[in-house]
Structure formats: C-alpha cells, structure tokens
Amino acid sequence: MAKEKKGVRLEHISKIYKDPKTGKDFYAVKDTSLNIEPGTFVTLLGPSGCGKTTTLRMIAGFESPDEGEIYLGNEAINELTPNKRDTAMVFQSYALLPHYNIFDNVAYGLKLRKFPKDVIKEKVTRILELVELSGMESRMTNQLSGGQQQRVALARALVIEPSVLLFDEPLSNLDAKLRVQMRTEIRRIQQEVGITAIYVTHDQSEAMAISDKIIIMDKGVVAQMGTPQEIYYHPVNEFVADFIGEANFLRGPMVGREGKYAVLEVEGNRTCVEYSDKMKEGETYTMVLRPEAATLADEGSLPCRVVLSCFMGSYQNYHVMVGNTLVKLEEKNPKNKKIYNVGDECFLKFEAESVHVL
Amino acid sequence: MASAQSARLDKKKLLADPIMVTTIILLIAFLTLFILYPLAILLVDSVVGDGGFSFSVFKRVFKIPTFTTAITNTLKVGFVVGIFATAVGLLFAYVEIYVRINKFAGGLFKVVSMLPVVSPPFVLSLSVIMLFGKSGLITRYLFKIYDNSVYGFWGIVVVQSLTFFPVCYMMFRGLLKNIDPSLEEAARDMGASRMKVFTSVTLPLLLPGIGNAFLVTFIESIADFANPMIIGGSYDTLATTIYLQITGAYDKAGASAMAVVLLCITLAMFAVQKYVLEKKSTATLTGKASRARMLIEDKSVRIPLTTICSLGALFVILMYICVPIGALFPTWGYKFFPFTFKWFNQVFTKYKGFKAFKDSFVLSFISAPITALLSMIISYLVVKRKFKAKGFIEAVSMLAMAVPGTVLGVGYIRGFSGGIFRTGFMQGLYGTGAILVIVFIIRSLPTGTRSGIAALRQIDKSIEESAYDMGADSFKVFTTVTLPLIKDSFLSGLVTAFVRSITAISAIILLVTPSYLLITVQINEFAEKGAYGLACAFASILILITYGAVLIMNTIIKHFGTSRAIKEVD
Question: Which residues share a beta bridge with A9?
Fold first, then answer.
C-alpha cells in the first residue's frame, strides 16, 4: 500500500448536545486539540460518556463539530460527508451487510470506487489472506463466528486503503479470550500495513496492549496524551492515575528536603518522595502508589495495619490501613515470602522512585 | 453561537447529496399538496365566504338537525364499538397467549387475524343483512321472525365490532407477548389466584394499551363510511351525512364545514392516542420475556375460553363465507335454490363488470408500488437520517392516518376541482385517474410508513453507517443496503397498499367520475338499491382478488425473503 500516510489533527473541537431530559445544552466534547502522527496507533480511552466515541464519529463525519476544525493530513475535512472522507471505520457491532456474502462485503467499497472486476478480486483475495479468512469468500455473514465477522469488518475497512482506520470499540462484543487474540492481530495488521489508526475503547488493558499512544478522555476533555508508560508511571491527575491500573493515593504536606528527595508527612509519618522543582514546602501533595510498587515488611517507611489478606495464586492481595487511608497491595510471587494476616501491624515498604507525586 | 457551526456543517453535508435533497423537497411538496393543502382548504372554505371571514356556514350546518344527530350518532357508535372491539380483541389475545389451545382453534385464530387484511369494507354488512335482516336466513327461515330490522345503531355496532376487533386482537397479542411471565409468576408465588393475577398484574400493565386500542377503534369507527352506508339505514353518521350533503344536497360549503367537525374529532382522538397512550403502553411493557410462559392447562379455564373464542371465530368466518354463497341464490331472501351463476353472469354481461375490475385493478396496481416505495423512503428518512424537515415529514405522514377518507375526499373536491386555490392551475388533475391514484397512495401511506419504520428500527444503525463510511452516497445506501434489508416489509407494504386501494371507498366515492368504474363503488351502488345478489357477486370476486394478492405475497416472501438472514445476525 504505497500510499502517503496521513495524520489527523483536531483543533479546538467541541460538540454540544441537548440533554433530552432537562433540555439544556452540554458539551460532549469540549475544546479538544489533538495531533495524531501519521502511521501511529492511537487509542481514545475513557469511561462511558467521556466523549471518545463522539470524537471518533466526528473524525468519520457522522457528527459535525460545533466548534473547531478537523484536518486529515493538511486538508480541512469539516464539510466532507462520511463517504467523501478518506477514513474507514470498524464498528462495534461489525455492521456487516447481512444480505451479502463475505466477498461482496469486502468488495463493497471497491465496487463503489468503480475498480475493474479483476482488480477487485485480487485486492479482496489479498486482504482476506491478511486477515486469515481465505476460502471463506462465499460464506454468508451469519455463518461466521464473532471473531471472524470482526475480521471481515477489518478487511472491508482495510481494502479501500484509507488514510486513517477508525475503530469503535471493535472487540467489546467478543469473549475475553478472543478479545486478547484479536487485539494482537489488529496490532500486527496495523503495523504490517503501516496505517494511521484511531481506536476507541474503555478497556485499559486493551489500550495498553496495542497503542503507540493513549489519549485519556474525561468529561469531554483530554486528560492526558502519552505513551502507555508515560500514562501509567506519570499520570497528570488522580483521574488518570485511577483510571489506568489501580492506584493508591496518600496525601500530606511537604515538610522538608533530604538530598534529592522531598519529605512528606503522611498520616503523621514522614516519608521520602522524588523532589521536583515545582514542589514547595507547606503545600499538600498526593502520592500515587501502584499496588505492585510496595510490599509489606517488618520495617519500612509507613506503619500500617492489615485489614484483608487474601491468596490469589500469582499474588497475595492485601488491604492495609495507613492511618485513615486504605491502601491496596499486590505482593507478587508470595510462595516463599512472609504472609501477614488480618490484624498484623507492619510497615509499607517502597522506593521513593516508584512513587509518583501529584 | 457555537451550535450554529454543526447546523451549518450538517446542512452542507446534506446539500452535497443532491439526490437526497431532491427527494426531500419532492416529498415535502407531495405531502403538502395532497395532505395539508386539501385539509387547509376545507378550513378556509368553511370560515371564509363571500362576505369575508365568518362562522355563518358553521352556524348554518349546526342548524341542520340531521347533522347534529349525526354527531351524537357517530360518537355513540364509536364509543360502543370501541368497547366491544377492545373487549373481544383482548379476550382473543389473552386466550392465544395464555391458554393452551389446540391446533384447530389456533388455525381459526390465524384466519381471524388475517381477515382485516383481505376484507373489503362492506362484506360484513352484506352478510349481516343476509343472515339477520328482514328476509335473513337465520332470522326468517330459522327462527321465523319476520320483522327483524338490522338497519340502524345495533347493525352498525355489530358489523363494526366484528370488522375492527381483529385489529385490537393483533395489538394486544403484541403487548401480552412482551409481559415478562416472571411478573405473573411472582404474583402467583405470593398467593394470588389466577383471577387476582389478571386483575392486579396483567390488567394494570395493559391499561394504557387498552386505552390505545379503544381509541384506535373509535377513530376507525367514526371514519368508517362503507358500513354505516349499507347497514345504517336512516341512522346517519358523520361520514354518510357529509357524503349525502355533497351528493344529495349539492352543498359543498356545508359539507366542508361538516368535514372540519369530523376532522377535529378524529384529530383530537388521534393526538391523545399518539402522544399520551401509545408512549405509555410501550413504556410499561418493554421487558422481553425471560422465558416461555407456562400456559394455562386447567380445563375449567381452558375449555370455556377456547370454546367461546372458537365459536366467535367460526361465526366471523361464516359471515365471510356467506357472501359468495349469497351471490349464488337465484333471488335474495326469497328463492335460494338451485344455486345459479346468473349474478356473476350479469356482473360481466350487463353491468360492465370487466371494466370495473380492470379499472380498480389497474389503478391499484399503479398506486401500490408507488405507495410502498414512498413509505420506505419516508421511513428511511425518519429513522436513519437527521435533517430539519424530518419532523414535518413524519408528522404529516402520520396525520394522514387520522384523516377520515370522507374528509379527504371533500378536501380534494374543494381543493382541486377548480385547480389549486381555484386559480385553474392543475385543474386538469381533477376527474382523472391520476387523482384517484394519488388518493389511493395517500390513504395507504400511513400504514406502509408505520410498518417500514418498525422494520427499520430493528436494523442496527451502524450497518448503514458502515456503507456510508465505505463511500456510498444516500441513494446507494438506500438501494444497496436499506431496501434489501427491509425487502419483506417492502413486499408486504406493496400488497397491503394494493389491497387497501382496491377495497377503498370512502374518499374515492366522492371523487370518481363516470369514466372510471370501481368495484367498491359498484358494490355500494347495488347494495344501496337492494340488489344484494349483484353486490355479493362483485364482493366475492373482490375477495378472491385480494386473497390471491396476499397468497402471492406470502409465497414470494417465503422464497425471496431476507428476514431469516437478518434475524440471525441480530
């Protein structure tokens, strides 16, 4: 597919809907600016109602933005109808045409583009090979499993060689195992083709597994955009930290410095975190502690009391109280480690570098 | 303002689709010209006379005693018929859904549910007269009653109830199916008797639906023209009074005012039904049955209920069979044997039967595909697209449902006989076959649109979106995706439109000119004259045609239908 790769740019995009109950206007998407690099796989991630699907549908052209401009490559596409946009979408419900067989479904877009018959045949055959559905051409859509149907949908979108591929929660109708398998496959095909892909999901592990970049959305605005690592280790706020993975929040004022560390007073105890220039003494900060970033020990930085201790196989699940704050921990590979029981008094042990400060 | 941009963009996108824009504009023009304009002209005509704006025409018609009695008559009939039809319909639906019935009864139920589709309007009136009239088979020859009169209030009530109850039955069947059996099982489990379950669970859940069915029947009853015409005798309803005002008294202005009154009544009913009850009745019953219902096996319930319903169904079927048999009697009500084909012969030899069938058939045959296509286009626009005039299109095509045929007929006379706004423009339309075709289309459009909308709502929106996204414009989406997916609905719409057109009378009878002979008008004429043998012969052939059309449709759907493939995807 020797086609120039195109990125997608959103400039101050807003979408306003009317609340059907109150009749009031509200922002489904508010003043969102994004720059999606050509050839990257970008995921829009967020809870339901955060505006991620609306954003995707605006890029596809099904919805019109109330403010701002959308660019595909360098072309402003606000005024183009979906059929005139160089994008192709893979739908949550597959949206295959039930009255066509697999071949005709995949060939649909090519026929509309008036390709000669032999070219269509060749392209469809090649793309079905890519999604590993060769030999299924004459089947009807209802004779395929969910995973296969989604592959047809993907093939149908890929075959017209769009500049951008759009995915609207494509795996949420599949069972858990198939989901994992399909997402690997989607990633493989995207990298093979080298196409720009925008992927909407509410499943964070899916987002982590396939994306070059993740865009976290909350209440119509972009909360953070970054690589999966950036988002996981350096969330910009509590919402992002909480939404991606599990997070414990411990709050306290900064009371001093110790070399390259800042000292926070959390629940009456002092503990060290990484210091940054922005931190000031006397201000209150929030420590983001991932469950796997700390362990329980007989001595450490913060005293705590165990309120739940539960064997989960690959890890021991603890809930401990640090003062009045509940902290959830996962102790990996607990086989030869000391197990603390409910009621035990002990310490949280972690390295200052494993803690992110907000 | 912010949202102006999306409105502007949506408009731009719409304009980029010339076929769609043209379709919308033509559709709006068509609906305005043939639904809104005739109704508006009635209103204008009845208040604007030579001396400017006045209510003098209304004052005049309200002084006509036959008109005021007609109003009370119509409402009385509508009310009683509404109650009867709803009750009988509910009984049938309840027995079908709740009681274990045998195959025979099940078959009877199926026939009953199909009857309103194929039945020409006056068949039941004819058979009631034939069975229970002065020289009725049952009254005179079985019970030796010589002075029984079926004409009048009770005649209309019986005939209309029998005509309309299958519609209620179908409505209730849909509603009852949607009641989750576990609700009733929970009530049973807590100690309620079957009767108590019915009165405390089932009935309250159905209440809005009952109101809905009642009003639908009420509207049908007051809009009905054919039955009161034949069996009403001197008991005039609004529809027949308006007809007589035009054909007998030649008072077109008066008829307009009367039509406005009738229209107001049906519109008010329709508004209540549409916006209050219909929403409520579906809102309370959205639950899908979690599992199959335990059917009532108890003999003390089963046997009486099944017997009553089966007898009722048999009776209705008997009434329909009477018509072709009646056409074979040598002299109606006097000499029954030996059977003769002389009436059928006369239909074709003496009374231009062939022309009547040809005219009716051709006009209906032209209007049916147009109606079916139009209603599919309207449903597509209403369900799948968003644009400014959508509300207008939806409202006007639904409005047509509430307009009685007689009112529409008067509206067309007033609106088109002198050209549009009496300017002479498009005057040529009046009196032609084209206007009859248009009336057929308008009269069948709401039913088709309603079934089209229901069918389209079943289809996942993203299927069309995906085609659009792949590069198809609206026209392509409609022809390659939407239409194939609702092929069944389209085909049945086609036949429904055909059957409705070929059996239509109320609006047509006011507009037909001597150059066209229509079967229904012929039946009405002969029944009026008391030539029941001829009327029955015409009606029998009409039943044959409509039944044949339905049979053909069912075969086609069975062989070429798409519903199976789509349903399995869902």
Answer: A35, A71
Q: How many CA atoms lie within 13 A of A109 on its CB side?
A: 31
Query: How, if at all, do strands A8-18 and A25-36 pair?
Result: antiparallel
- Domain assignment of residue A2, yes or no: no
**Residue A136, helix vs strand vs coil:** coil
User: Is residue B268's pLDDT more than 70?
Assistant: yes
| Pairwise CB contact (< 8 Å): B471 & A113 | yes
For strands A41-45 and A213-218, give the pairing. Answer: parallel
Q: What is the sign, positive or negative, of the torsion defined by CA atoms of B289, B290, B291, B293?
A: negative
Structural domain count, chain A: 2
Q: What is the pLDDT of residue B568?
A: 41
Distance CA B203, CA B180 (A): 13
Contact B484/A65, CB-based, under 8 Å?
Answer: no
For A292-295, which contacts have Cβ atoms below 8 Å and span 24 or more sequence positions?
A292/A329, A292/A330, A292/A332, A293/A350, A293/A351, A293/A354, A293/A355, A294/A327, A294/A329, A294/A348, A294/A349, A294/A350, A294/A354, A295/A329, A295/A331, A295/A348, A295/A349, A295/A350
- Among chain B residues, the shortest Cα distance to A12 is held by B2
Residue A275, Cβ neighbours under 10 Å: how many?
17
A184 and A286 assigned to the same domain: no
| Inter-chain touch B466–A92, beta carbons under 8 Å | no
Check A97 against B481: CB less than 8 A apart: yes
Same domain membership, residue A124 and residue A144: yes
CA distance readout (Å), B319 to A165, B92, B110: 64, 18, 16
Asked if the structure places residue A3 within a domain, the reply is no
- The pLDDT confidence band at residue B333, using thresholds 50, 70 and 90, is low
* pLDDT tens per residue across span A309-352: 888 888 889 999 888 888 898 988 888 888 888 888 888 888 88
Question: Domains of chain B (ranges plus CATH)?
Answer: 16-41+345-570 (1.10.3720.10), 64-326 (1.10.3720.10)
| CA–CA gap between residue A133 and residue A151 (Å, rounded) | 8
One domain, residues A235 and A261: no
Judge contact between B478 and B377, C-beta under 8 A: yes
Q: What is the mean pLDDT of chain B?
A: 82
Of the candidates B2, B466, B468, which has its C-beta nearest A16's C-beta? Answer: B2
* pLDDT reading at B129 higher than 50: yes
- State the residue range of the domain holding A31: 8-242
pLDDT of residue A216: 92
The answer on A163 and A76 residing in a single domain is yes
Burial string for B543-564 (b: 16+ CB within 10 Å, else e) reads bebbeebbeebeebbeeeebee
B502 contacts B514 by C-beta, under 8 angstroms: no
For the CA atoms of A341, A345, A349, A355, the dihedral, rounded to the nearest 10 degrees, stands at: 100
Q: Hey, of A11, A97, A172, which one would you mutate to test binding to chain B, going by the most B CBs within 10 A of its CB?
A: A97
pLDDT at A124: 93
Per-residue model confidence as pLDDT tens digits over A231-281: 998 899 889 998 888 888 988 888 888 888 888 888 888 888 888 878 888
- pLDDT for A120: 92
Pairing of strands A221-226, A213-218: antiparallel
Q: Residue B137's closest CA among B519, B532, B406, B499?
A: B532
Q: Which has the closest alpha carbon to B398: B274, B489, B502, B491?
A: B274
